[in-house]
Specification:
With about 550 residues, this protein is α+β, with helices and mostly antiparallel strands. The protein is about 30% helix and about 25% strand. The chain has helices spanning about 55-60, 110-120, 140-145, 175, 190-195, 250-255, 270-275, 305-310, 315-325, 345-350, 360-375, 395-405, 420-430, 445-450, 465-475, 480-500; strands at about 1-5, 15, 35-40, 65-70, 75, 80-85, 90-95, 155-160, 160-165, 210-215, 220-225, 240-245, 265, 280-295, 330, 380-390, 410-415, 435-440, 500-515, 520, 520-525, 530, 535. The radius of gyration is 23 Å and the shape is globular. The termini are far apart.
Length: about 550
């Protein structure tokens, strides 16, 4: 048996942010509180169903799983103070520390068995797929996801403090996944008592993490207070967090200037104004914004048309002159700073570049693809819709993409602006031609992106299906060495970029203003976007 106290994950990127200002009237009036401005509200505080970054942030502030990330982006023990791995790499045994929920009940192994089985058997739980071979590779998960609800996951509460997980095959990133919210525990008795109200308000939640949610005004504000029953409460340095939902970055920037906000992100229109401010900082985030094409559209079934659109976008111009927030170009489907290969190099460094061309060359190549597409389709003019959300950076990026595509004579792009939740619903319904969408990595491995395009994946909204691609991904999953697996993943991405059901456009840079008296706002490129356990604020 191999014994572990923690697992270093060098392929996770984190930057601990520090900056300037101080909160006054928007914060809770008593105590040492940090005030954050966030563009989007929480969608769900139920770890079984949450799918968006903001929800993950707030859930991770109030609930801990088996593992978490430290300030350096390494996977470290959370509720599991240690774990064992069987010699064949298939059985993980987690040993839980003494911890309790904020209602006084102990955190037990049964909280994990309940949460995981409840999640994978509920069709409304979109992240349930992460239990299967597209994620953690837990035994029985694929069969349950395929409809066999008589089975349970191969997990067991051996006793109150011992949680055992059996895998169907080895999973090199398994422990890193344990820091992701879908793998967090849920107290069965409390959740059952709350029924369908569980997680909908602050009054229908309990916490086992650094903070507890004490108020939540939808679309307006959340207030978190330090959770005194948290097992590591002595290392939580602030009394709480005020989270103001401020859709307009210009408004939150003014709040920052007036001392009412300690942290706000900036949009592209504000970067030039604040870039010389001592509070200004940028980080490279894990989110990849990409175009997805709908194969139900008769025109977009044409490969040369998809290549024309993917090639014509001048990504350098977009990131340098439109976004200006530290975003970088990406023409593939796996971003930078996600994962390090067995050769010690970042995945993107050793993989080919796709569709990143200079403006003149890109337009020329795109026109050639479009000319072929017109011949194959028997048309000279087409109209396509582009679905996007009217927030930064999506809105300016989508408008830029529209102008770029319309350089190709005969293509008209109609813009369809929908708020994020509606945009996602339209994607699920297949109600789009092209969509500018994003993905944040759930774990530090290229498969967190590449698995999305497997036949039947619930996030494969464009309904791409390739036996060649599926087979190559299966080869990677069953590779006999790390080197072979890495090579197969890069070969799979090559197939994907030749077929072009999706294409990367840019990787997000986060331009922000941060109070110089505040430290411990930790940004992670993988998993939970921001972790707040280590917040400190000098008065």
């Amino acid at each position: 048996m191999k014994k572990f106290l923690s697992l270093a994950c060098s392929s996770m990127m984190l930057i601990s942010l520090v900056g300037c200002g101080s909160g006054t009237d928007t914060k809770k009036s008593d105590g040492n509180y940090v005030t954050l401005a966030k563009e989007n509200d929480v969608i769900s505080m139920d770890s079984r169903y949450a799918t968006d970054g903001m929800s993950f942030e707030m859930i991770a502030a109030t609930v801990e799983g088996l593992e978490t990330m430290d300030k350096d982006g390494k996977i470290v023990p959370a509720l599991a103070e240690s774990y064992d791995v069987s010699d064949d790499g298939l059985i993980y045994t987690f040993h839980l520390r003494d911890a309790e929920w904020s209602n006084g009940t102990p955190v037990t192994a049964a909280d994990f068995t309940y949460a995981w089985n409840a999640t994978i058997k509920n069709p409304a739980a979109e992240y349930a797929y992460l239990f299967g071979s597209d994620g953690a590779c837990i035994k029985n998960a694929d069969e349950i996801l395929a409809g066999d609800t008589d089975l349970d996951l191969a997990i067991a509460a051996k006793d109150e403090k011992t949680f055992e997980v059996t895998l169907a095959k080895q999973c090199p990133y398994f422990v890193s996944l344990m820091s992701f919210p879908v793998f967090y525990p849920v107290n069965e008795a409390y959740a059952t008592e709350q029924g369908d109200q569980y997680g909908l308000t602050a009054d229908n939640l309990i916490a086992n993490g650094p903070y507890k949610l004490v108020s939540w005004s939808k679309g307006n504000k959340l207030v978190l207070e330090k959770n005194d029953s948290y097992w590591d409460a002595e290392n939580v340095k602030v009394d709480g967090i005020n989270v103001n939902i401020v859709p307009e970055a210009s408004t939150s920037a003014l709040d920052f200037e007036s001392g009412n906000t300690d942290f706000t992100k900036l949009n592209s229109t504000l970067v030039d104004k604040y870039k010389d401010n001592e509070a200004y900082t940028t980080v490279l985030e894990g989110y990849l914004w990409y175009l997805q094409y709908n194969y139900d559209n008769k025109y977009l079934q044409n490969e040369n048309l998809r290549k024309a659109i993917s090639t014509v976008i001048d990504r350098e111009d977009l990131v340098e002159n439109v976004l200006k927030d530290g975003s970088i170009v990406c023409g593939g489907f796996v971003p930078e700073a996600l994962a390090t290969g067995p050769d010690g190099k970042d995945y993107r460094e050793s993989a080919p570049e796709y569709f990143n061309m200079l403006a003149e060359d890109g337009l020329k190549a795109a026109q050639e693809y479009w000319d072929k597409a017109k011949q194959e389709l028997g048309v000279n003019e087409i109209t396509l819709s582009l679905l996007y959300e009217p927030s930064d950076p999506s809105k300016p990026a989508a408008e830029f993409i529209q102008s770029q595509i319309q350089q190709l004579d005969g293509i008209t792009v109609e813009m369809v602006s929908q708020e994020k939740e509606n945009r996602i619903e339209k994607q699920k319904a297949g109600d789009f031609d092209m969509v500018l969408t994003r993905w944040g990595p759930d774990y530090a491995d290229p498969t967190t992106y590449l698995n999305l395009m497997l036949t039947g994946n619930s996030y494969n909204y464009g309904k791409y299906s390739s036996k060649e691609y599926d087979a190559k991904m299966a080869e990677a999953a069953n590779a006999k060495s790390d080197e072979e697996r890495w090579q197969k993943l890069q070969e799979a991405e090559a197939i994907l970029m030749n077929d072009v059901p999706v294409v990367g456009v840019f990787q997000v840079g986060g331009a922000s203003l941060i109070n110089k008296n505040v430290t411990g706002i930790e940004n992670h490129a993988v998993g939970v976007p921001y972790i707040y356990k280590n917040l400190e604020k000098k008065e």
